[in-house]
Amino acid sequence: xxxxxxxxxxxxxxxxxxRLSCAASGSxxxxxxxxxxxxxxxxxxxxxxxxxxxxxxxxxxxxxxxxFIISRDNVANTVYLQMNSLKPEDTxxxxxxLRLIPTxxxxxxxxxxxxxxx
Length: 118
Prior knowledge:
Number of strands: 11
Oligomer: single chain
Helix content: under 10%
Low-confidence stretches: none
Radius of gyration: 14 Å
Largest sheet: 7 strands, mixed
Order of helices and strands: EEEEEEEEEEE
């Protein structure tokens, strides 16, 4: 079992920055898994924000391109989401996700709340 714990959320003004962290523990796979950040706004579905693959390739939702950077430290078993130029529409609960390849099993953190004021 893999445990994921997010941190770094909070209240920021529009235009500010936050760095989210997701620390993994437990039976962590050493190969073939992708890390993702999702966002869920109140009353909406959980949407993919960014992904970093096992090989280091990154993907960003259109809303995050040019402003967010996903990275990971495999030694520390931690994935990060650097969020810059934050907008009120970035508000939501951010969840860390680990997806095993090729089984596609998912592990989820409990989320961390990001609130961006206008």
